[in-house]
Amino acid sequence: MALLEVEHLDVRFPLRRGEIRAVRDLSFSLQRGERLGIVGESGAGKSVLAFSLLKLLSRPGRIVAGKVRFEGRELTSLSERQFRRLRGNRLAMIFQDPLTTLNPVLTIGQQMIESLKAHRRLSTRRARIVAIDKLRQVQVSSPERRLEQYPHQLSGGLCQRVVIAIALLLEPDIIIADEPTTALDVTIQAEIITLLKRLCDEHDVGLIVISHDLGVIGQLTQRTLVMYAGRIVEQGPTREIINDAQHPYTQGLINALPQMTLPRQRLHQIPGSMPTLSEVPSGCAFHPRCAYRITPEGVPRRDCIENVPEPVRSGECQVACHWVAELIAREPAEERAT
Ligand code: SF4
Q: What is the secondary structure of 195-222 as a DSSP string?
């Protein structure tokens, strides 16, 4: 059984001027110890997805359809109280900016010890020992001294290590990390990526990493979901997605990576921008930006404009694209001809 199963999830924000469908018919699963990446430009619905998994959606957002199962247990029907217990103990979240996650008026020790005492029956002395142990696990030097310090006395990288240590305090089964390295410089980014990988492997923790940066996803995860305008457009093993992306949007993200650009060359960019979630184009939401919506003969593909593409299997990946479906459908005929 998968550790986490999401089936046909639909999240909406009813507003006076119309409804925003932030997540549409989205399904995926996460195995114990697996590292899963969710990638897409900002506005794709990635963070809304993460917040809905943790029942942290801001009003008026709500899950209107679909199931979220954790170890087979349905979560969407749990009361706020039942969910709070689960969120504290089994599911943890790491936010983008460590300085805004940590309370600036409390020492690191106060934050860690209070969090432990709120969820476990531990004496202050015992909680302090656990906090020091977690800081050691995330390779924070002089952990006893750090417990007495305030967040502003630590560097950005050190703060993020502390945030990770706090996420590990209650030994969760799943950590959801929303842009965990975006606020950090490149060297610290690499250290945090290595640290997260090691911790997940050692503790068998499932990790969901949300990022706009396919480079980070490529280094950190084993499987990737690519999101566009609230839907998954491609999913599969990360190495397949990086080395042989099928969906035109994923190809665009890969071509936009700095490492794909030669020195003195301008960065490649996907033309246009992500639609707002209240005005998603008809058919394939990516069609206004996609070169393949026109056939090589110059004929517009009507399907692209009129029908939402269903995912099709391509190698080890699932791809939601009419053009890819056409190529796959043609494959056996071409093979027969040769
Ligand atoms: Fe492009 Fe059409 Fe594929 Fe969408 S379905 S990505 S518009 S080719």
A: HHHHHHHHHT-EEEEEES-HHHHHHH-S
Same domain for 207 and 247, yes or no, is no
Smallest CA separation from ligand 1 atom 5, residue: 321
Residue 269 included in any domain: no
- Shared-domain flag, residues 172 and 280: no
Among 293, 312, 314, 324, which residue has the most ligand 1 atoms within 8 Å of its CB, making it the best to mutate?
293
Q: Round to whole Å and give the CA distance between 162 and 154.
A: 10
Q: How far is CA 150 from the centre of its chain?
A: 29
* Tokens 């217990």, located at residue: 85
**CA distance linking residue 250 with residue 239, whole number of Å:** 13
10-residue mean pLDDT profile of the chain (338 residues): values are 95 89 96 96 93 90 95 90 84 86 94 92 94 94 96 92 93 93 85 92 95 93 97 97 96 85 70 90 97 92 96 95 94 58
Count of structural domains, the chain? 2
The residues facing 210 across adjacent strands are 38, 178
Nearest CA to ligand 1 atom 7: 287
The minimum-distance atom of ligand 1 relative to the CA of 287 is 7
* Residue 265 DSSP label: S
- Domain match, 323 and 224 both: no
Which tokens is 318 given? 């699932």
Atom of ligand 1 nearest to the CA of 301: 2
Ligand 1 pocket by C-beta < 6 Å: which residues?
A: 248, 284, 286-287, 290, 292-293, 301, 304, 309, 321-323
* CA distances in angstroms from 123 to 107, 119, 144, 170, listed in the order given: 18, 12, 17, 15
User: Domain containing 313: what range?
Assistant: 238-263+275-337
Strand 206-211, strand 35-39: pairing: parallel
> How many Å lie between the centroid of ligand 1 and the Cα of residue 235?
16
pTM > 0.90 = yes
Q: Is residue 13 domain-shared with residue 104, that is, in the same domain?
A: yes
